[in-house]
Amino acid sequence: MSSPSSDMKAFRELVHQCKSLVVLTGAGVSAESGVPTFRGAGGYWRRWNATDLATPGAFHENPSLVWEFYHYRREVMASKHPNPAHIAIAECEKRFKRSGRKVTVITQNIDGLHKRAGSNRILELHGNLFKTRCLKCGDVAVNVDSPICEALQGRGAPDPGTESALIPEEQLPRCKVGGCGGLVRPHVVWFGECLESSILEEVDQELKNCDLCMLVGTSSVVYPAAGFAPALAARGVPVAEFNMETTWATNQLGFHFHGPAGENVPEALKP
């Protein structure tokens, strides 16, 4: 199998010609914004492996602890900003729209930075830190309150010696739909949960209709997203990978650009 091309000029020509561009993004697109991933050996919050808190069982057993963790993550995100890659993708969407074309972002990230950068066509595979879902009525709502509830004010410090707040359930974030008041949880996909079928249907439709794809900042190990780009390439759709390192999927794709997304993506999407 031949190595993927690193010809930026050739790829930019494809961008200028395409009618429907899909941008698949992972944690790497937000790395230059300083967003922690909580993956790998350093993925601890206090004494817990962060992935152990991102489960339905953990929330059922100790919703106070899990909300402290997610409150911390929300507050950290308040100090982060979209980087040049997010902004270039959003500006490309606006430019395409003016000429009757479209850009769709399909992201594994839950940080909301694509939206803050100005992107509008966003499919969030794993949910969003700044949305909640009621366990009683099922309502999904955007919530950017800081703190999300009074009892979490000043809580969530990540230091290993920090004692848990043990907040009573009735003082944790509650549903704001009139008369409900049910306990809400972060609207994110936890380990052991399935992705939303409605989101997957929209993703499938966009992948069927696109004629160009950019894979930005993802290690291509989490499914089903890891299979999207190789499947497109196998169908003959040009796919470019923008990553700091090569991945198992790299040699199945048409283009590979090594380096920070904040440098390469704006170059690729120049008007």
Report what the structure shows.
This protein has 271 residues and is α/β, with parallel strands linked by helices. It folds into two domains: 1-35 and 82-126 and 195-271, 3-Layer(aba) Sandwich (Rossmann fold); 38-79 and 128-188, 2-Layer Sandwich (SIR2/SIRT2 'Small Domain'). Helix content is 31%, strand content 18%. The chain has helices at 8-17, 50-53, 56-61, 63-77, 84-98, 113-117, 197-209, 228-234, 261-268, and strands at residues 20-25, 44-45, 48-49, 102-107, 122-124, 127-134, 140-142, 184-188, 212-216, 239-243, 255-258. The protein has a six-stranded parallel β-sheet, with helices on both faces. A three-stranded antiparallel β-sheet has the order 7-6-8, covered by helices on one side. Strands 2-3 form a two-stranded antiparallel sheet. Strand 9, helix 8 (228-234) and strand 10 form a beta-alpha-beta unit. The longest helix is centred in the first third of the chain and has 15 residues, at 63-77. The radius of gyration is 20 Å and the shape is elongated. It starts with 7 loop residues before the first helix and ends with a helix.
Total helices: the number is: 9
What is the CATH superfamily label of the largest domain? TPP-binding domain
Q: Give the ordered list of helices and strands.
A: HEEEHHHHEHEEEEHEHEEH
The CATH topology of the largest domain comes to: Rossmann fold
**CATH architecture classification of the largest domain:** 3-Layer(aba) Sandwich
Q: What percent of the residues sit in helical stretches (DSSP H or I)?
A: 25-40%
Rounded to an integer in angstroms, the radius of gyration calculated over CA atoms is: 20 Å
Q: Could you report the average pLDDT, rounded to the nearest whole number?
A: 93
CATH C-level name of the largest domain:
Alpha Beta
Largest sheet, in brief, is: 6 strands, parallel
Number of domains: 2
Structural class: alpha/beta
Q: Beta-sheet strand percentage?
A: 15-25%
List the uncertain runs: none
Gross morphology: elongated
Q: Measure the end-to-end span.
A: 32 Å
Physical arrangement of strands within the biggest beta sheet: 5-4-1-9-10-11
Number of DSSP E strands:
11
